[in-house]
Amino acid sequence: MQTAANIVQSNMGKMPTVVNPQYKHREDGSTMKALAWFGTNDVRMVDAPIPDVSEPDDVIVKVTGTTICGSDLHLYHGEIMALQKGDILGHEFMGKVDRIGPNVKNLKPGQRVVASFQIACGKCKFCQQKLSSFCDNTNTSSLQNYMYGTRDAGFFGYSHFTGGFPGGQAEYVRVPLGEVNLLPIPDEVSDEKAIYLSDVLPTSYHCVVDTGVKEGDTVGIWGLGPIGQCCARWAKIKGASRIIAIDQVPERLAFAKEQGYEVIDFSKEKDITKKIHELVPGGLDVALDCGTFHEPKTLLHRGMKMLMLETDVPETVNEMITSVRKLGRCGLIAAYAGFTNGFNIGALMEKGVRLIGNGQAPVHKYWKEILQDYIIPGKFDPTFMISHRVPIDDMAKLYVAFDKRISGVEKVFVETQFSAPSSEGCPSVSRVDSWKS
Ligand SMILES: NC(=O)c1ccc[n+]([C@@H]2O[C@H](COP(=O)([O-])OP(=O)(O)OC[C@H]3O[C@@H](n4cnc5c(N)ncnc54)[C@H](O)[C@@H]3O)[C@@H](O)[C@H]2O)c1
Ligand SMILES: [Zn+2]
Ligand SMILES: [Zn+2]
Q1: Could you tell me which of 138, 230, 308, 312 has the fewest CB atoms within 10 Å of its CB?
Q2: Which domain of life is it from (predicted)?
Q3: Which listed ligand is nearest to 227 at the C-alpha?
Q4: CA angle, 420 as apex, 418 and 426 as ends, to 5°?
Q5: Same domain, 141 and 102
């Protein structure tokens, strides 16, 4: 699939952008540690050239914290198109400003910043509304433009389908248009509290707000990774009265139960819709998809995916549509990439279900609000989801462990040689080899 996608993309040429994904290397030839993709289930630590200012609006960030996301697993499994051998992955990171281009006025070397996972131009009609993930000007992918009719913003470390920008699972990152795509972090906010402003916090918040969770709603959440766990918290903050949480990972279900949510283990409960209608007669007000399209539940869809008859599976979406009440709302924040078979279009139409593609989350719309109104006053402490801290040398092993969800792994803080020691109450460093499987 990757070879075909890369050939099609290269034949189609590139869409115009205001930033160039290629970076200049430091003149002294110095290198850094980085995690790169080499094939399906094959990621490796490499020594890569340290980036230098390549365009006048660039900022080079010295990374003090990075992580792995459920979205990285789609890349790991080769489910996102147009990956190329040697691509540096990672789209959630923070650090200190190392070097700045001549146009950068609001940031200084040494300043602590968090990056948004998307690279936005700051000027187009979407950026003017802070809808940064929908920016029109930063993604060269003609393939995405052909498949979707338009294209997303460019993303860090997320294949050439989203612009081919080297990512943040590295010791240094070049951030194009740094004034737009970096948020300064006050000294009193620790790295562990700030880093997830890159993605997980705005993403989960966006899912809850965009799907319209309101006072008194009963909300079903499919998938209890970091996104699902944060969605549950935001839903409660927005007044949800009940949370029904669905997954099969024992530690994730146990944690959800501790929080007071009702849980369904889908490895034991075969008919999720029936179970939900037993628990909530008439159905859920809202259903949120925080799962993953690369783990088919049924033999039928496993087969169709294997035969390339579909790229994505509709199982979760179908369960959500049949589990909500008439005129219920379904939000898709889980990533999807292409096409699916057996979608229950009849139930969608007949029940008047509002099916909302939440899109890739527009980080810029929410990150200041979340920092100021929730993190600083202590109303939302993101460190609840950090299960482990590991050194960047373990990044390749972390992909294997995170994919298998061993040792109760939830969100991981990945440190570099530039990181501060772990903060009080947060996990201290461990090696992936020592985790229990
Ligand atoms: N739209 C965005 O901007 C955005 C940003 C970040 C992540 N995401 C997406 O959100 C999703 C969740 O991310 P994460 O980091 O929490 O991932 P994760 O892989 O840690 O968690 C996914 C969870 O879904 C569960 N799951 C799988 N199949 C299921 C099913 N049929 N029913 C119920 N649960 C099921 C898994 O057991 C797992 O616990 C991913 O698809 C990711 O790509 C989207
Ligand atoms: Zn992510
Ligand atoms: Zn823009």
Answers
A1: 308
A2: Eukaryota
A3: 1
A4: 135
A5: yes
